[in-house]
Write a structure and sequence with these properties.
The complex is a heterodimer of chains A (232) and B (524). Chain A has 232 residues and is of the alpha/beta class. Chain A has two domains: 155 residues, P-loop containing nucleotide triphosphate hydrolases (Rossmann fold, 3-Layer(aba) Sandwich), CATH 3.40.50.300; 69 residues, no CATH class. In chain A, 33% of the residues lie in helices and 30% in strands. Chain A has a six-stranded mixed beta sheet with strand order 7-8-9-3-10-11, sandwiched between helices. In chain A, helix 2 runs parallel beside helix 4. The radius of gyration of chain A is 17 Å and the shape is globular. Chain B has 524 residues and is an all-alpha fold. Chain B folds into two domains: 256 residues, MetI-like (MetI-like fold), CATH 1.10.3720; 259 residues, MetI-like fold. In chain B, helix 2 packs across helix 12, helix 9 packs antiparallel against helix 12 and helix 19 runs antiparallel to helix 22. The mean pLDDT of chain B is 85. Classes of the chains: A alpha/beta (232), B mainly alpha (524). At the A-B interface, strand 7 and helix 2 of A face helix 8 and helix 9 of B.
Chain lengths: 232, 524
């Protein structure tokens, strides 16, 4: 059995009287892809933000690769020290920076050696097949290209855990299918642990080793899957 | 029956025509007069030694004020947007209040503060400030105290507009300080820079402060040429370089701001607390600024006014000017808002280049210095015939207020109108309502707070207006600012301070009224 990359233990997060995440426990093995599935407002994005460190749990604990990063009601490790990559639903590409500089900002922040940065940026952009667009600004790219930049930005720091918050939700069905397949390929090739939040069962079928279903802030089921492309 | 085009065209067209007559014609007349003669045009552009001195002083005043006001205002705006300051709403109001004080009132307080018998000398036991009370650096400090709220509010709005997700995406890989420096600040920099340009224009357009502190700049030169030397031609010639400077810088600011000038959209996502560690220092800094910029001038005026034998006698002696001011400011604000509401609507619904051009035009017209507007109005209306019957009456004050304050009111109301979705109007049209009915029943009720705020701002600006009023005032007529400005030289300072204090405190009455109105309307 693989070691756990992520352990969420009995985590609760309230917003006022509303329990957005209610006593959730979850374990993700190293290299696994877990999809958190559920309708809007079920707490899946809040759970992702708790793992990223953008929200602080009211109770419970979160550990990454054996290190406790949150617990006892306060964030113990800030987001930038958790070694994660995060793709937002609206991508959140920095509009004043070119594609290359979006990635360069990440490497500069994680204190990557200067001599290696150009190579790593090249590799990350190549991985998602947008290297020729490196000098462009986000608004000069199509929706699919922006999606790839967001993915490259999340991967360039070689995170131990990749978090994705409905990254394909705004795309048309054809592009969505293409990018979903590419994401599955990348995750498999890189072997990165992934937590993917969505309300789309097709995403889950294509990407997940395990599917966690949430309703009203609680996990209602966990099921192991064989990915669709492996079944074909 | 679909009747929108006819009624909308008539109303908006009439508003635009009035805007052209009231706001553009005086400036156009001045430009035409100066450029209609080849010699005059040459003289206007000729930079002789005297002009160089004026240009240098004016540029220093504008640049120094823009830098200092932005250095004070921008960090405060950032703190207001991104830290949980205690009593934030109250603090914001107190921090913004100095921009509503007439600048010459703050300058007057400064002269009392720095005089050899002022508070500073009394506390220090020796004369520290009087040597540089009447200097260019003093004018820069006074104007910065009055204008820093513009940089503060522009920065706060810009920071609030930054999408919280962009900062969160950076927080995943970088500490808060680096996120602030590399993500937040570059995104708000254009707005802060544009605010600095607007402050530059307002500083070089200001007449009262340099006039009172005896600093020679273009605005005082225009006034001297016209009011002291009765040389209308020279006034026009000196006005042209200043007008061009203001127009160019204001146009640049409007171009940088683009749609942001009339857009009040907030960024999506909850902004992360990037500056929480700075909460206490930021709160202390904000309180210090309130004390220096608002508390000190008022305390100095009160201290000076205490020397007056009878406050009521002083106020009674200027009763006509005070009544004039209140009446004219109320009438002026009503006229300004009555015109601006239609212009604001037209701007809010204009798209693409027309909207952008309207923004540039409105900001440029607002930036035209008051003394230049005054000279333009006199040139336009002081002539035989029908126009001459208007000149020499109180209507000139109203024309002055319209020329100066319609652009800023229209921009404010355009921002309010944008909150009303076009679909609301379309739904009314589908239900059979004509455009005027849609405006009166659907649009205006939704922007009533914006209309009330525009009226209060116009009233406050009109009540403190000096630069145009002092030029166009009919013989024997005076407003409170004119009265204060003209009695400074030959009246005991305690009496002047009483009137200045009245001038400064009256503005808080409509502000309190607006606050009460807002709380009643929002409670419904």
């Amino acid at each position: 059995m693989s070691a756990a990359a992520l352990v969420v233990t009995n985590v609760t997060k309230r917003f006022g009287a509303h329990r957005a995440v209610d006593s959730v426990s979850l374990e993700v093995a190293v290299g696994d892809a877990v999809v958190i599935l559920g309708p809007s407002g079920c707490g899946k994005t809040t759970l992702l933000r708790l793992i990223a460190g953008l929200e602080v749990p009211d109770s419970g604990e979160i550990s990454l690769n054996g290190t406790k990063v949150a617990g006892l009601g306060r964030s113990t490790v800030p987001p930038h020290q958790r070694g994660i990559g995060l793709v937002f639903q609206d991508l959140a590409l920095w509009p004043h920076l070119t594609v290359r500089n979006n990635l360069e900002f990440v490497l500069g922040s994680v204190k990557s050696p200067r001599g290696e940065r150009a190579t790593r940026i090249y590799q990350a952009l190549n991985l998602v097949r947008i290297e020729p667009l490196s000098a462009r600004y986000p608004h000069e790219l199509s929706g699919g290209e922006q999606q790839r930049v967001a993915l490259a930005r999340a991967l360039v720091s070689q995170p131990r855990l990749l978090l994705l918050d409905e990254p394909l939700s705004s795309l048309d069905p054809e592009l969505r299918t293409t990018l979903r397949a590419e994401l599955a390929r990348l995750q498999r090739d890189l072997g990165v642990t992934m937590v993917y939040v969505t309300h789309d069962r097709d995403d889950a079928a294509a990407l997940a080793d395990a599917v966690v279903e949430m309703r009203a802030g609680r996990i209602v089921s966990v099921s192991k899957l064989t990915r669709t492309e492996e079944r074909v | 029956m679909w009747r929108w085009p006819s009624s909308r065209t008539v109303v908006v067209g009439s508003a635009v025509a009035l805007f052209v007559v009231c706001c553009l014609l005086p400036i156009g007349y001045l430009l035409f007069t100066s450029l209609s003669s080849a010699d005059a045009a040459y003289a206007a552009l000729w930079i002789d030694a005297r002009q160089r001195g004026l240009l240098w002083n004016t540029a220093l005043l504008g640049t120094g004020t823009a830098l200092l006001a932005t250095a004070i205002g921008a960090p405060l705006g950032l703190a207001l947007a991104r830290t949980a300051l205690p009593q934030k709403a109250l603090l914001r109001l107190a921090l913004a209040a100095p921009v509503l004080l007439p600048p010459y009132i703050v300058a007057l307080a400064w002269t009392y503060l720095g005089s050899s018998r002022g508070i500073v000398s009394a506390l220090a036991g020796r004369d520290l400030l009087s040597e540089w009370t009447y200097t260019l650096p003093a004018a820069i400090i006074v104007l910065s105290v009055v204008l820093y709220p513009l940089a503060m509010l522009a920065t706060e709005v810009a920071v609030r507009r930054v999408d919280g997700r962009l900062e969160e995406a950076a927080l995943v890989v970088a500490p808060a300080g680096r996120v602030l420096w590399r993500i937040t600040l570059p995104l708000v920099a254009p707005s802060v820079f544009a605010a600095a340009l607007v402050i530059f224009v307002l500083a070089v357009s200001e007449f009262g402060v340099p006039g009172l502190l005896r600093v020679r700049v273009y605005t005082t030169e225009v006034f001297t040429a016209f009011a002291a030397l009765y040389d209308f031609s020279r006034a026009i010639l000196v006005a042209v370089p200043l007008l061009l400077l203001c127009v160019v810088v204001a146009a640049l600011a409007a171009a940088i701001l683009g749609e942001r000038l009339v857009s009040t959209r907030r960024g999506s996502g909850t902004p992360p607390a990037l500056l929480d560690a700075w909460r206490k220092p930021a709160a202390i800094a904000a309180i210090v600024v309130v004390i220096v910029a608002l508390g000190v001038p008022l305390v100095v005026l009160v201290r000076e006014a205490m020397g007056a034998p009878s406050w009521s006698a002083v106020v009674g002696g200027s009763g006509d000017a005070i009544a004039n001011s209140l009446l004219l400011a109320a009438a002026g604000a009503t006229a300004v808002v009555s015109l601006a509401v239609w212009l604001g609507y037209a701007r809010a619904r204009a798209r693409g280049r027309i909207g952008q051009l309207a923004d540039v035009l409105l900001l440029v017209v607002f930036a035209v210095p008051s003394t230049i507007v005054g000279v333009g109005l006199i040139g336009l209306w002081n002539r035989p015939g029908v126009l001459g019957t208007v000149y020499g009456t109180d209507a000139m004050f109203l024309l002055a207020y319209l020329a100066r304050f319609v652009p800023v009111a229209a921009l404010a109301l355009a921002a309010s109108t944008r909150y009303v979705p076009v679909s609301h109007e379309e739904a009314a049209a589908v239900a059979g309502a004509g455009w005027l009915r849609t405006m009166s029943r659907i649009v205006v009720p939704q922007i009533r707070l914006g209309v009330a705020a525009a009226w209060v701002i116009a009233f406050i600006l009109a009540f403190g207006e000096l630069g145009v009023s002092v030029l166009v005032a009919p013989p024997g007529e005076a407003t409170l600012p004119i009265r204060i400005y003209t009695i400074i030289a030959n009246t005991p300072s305690s009496n002047v301070a009483v009137l200045a204090l009245l001038q400064a405190t009256v503005i808080f009455v409509p502000l309190a009224g607006l606050g009460a109105l807002a709380s009643v309307w929002e409670a419904r």
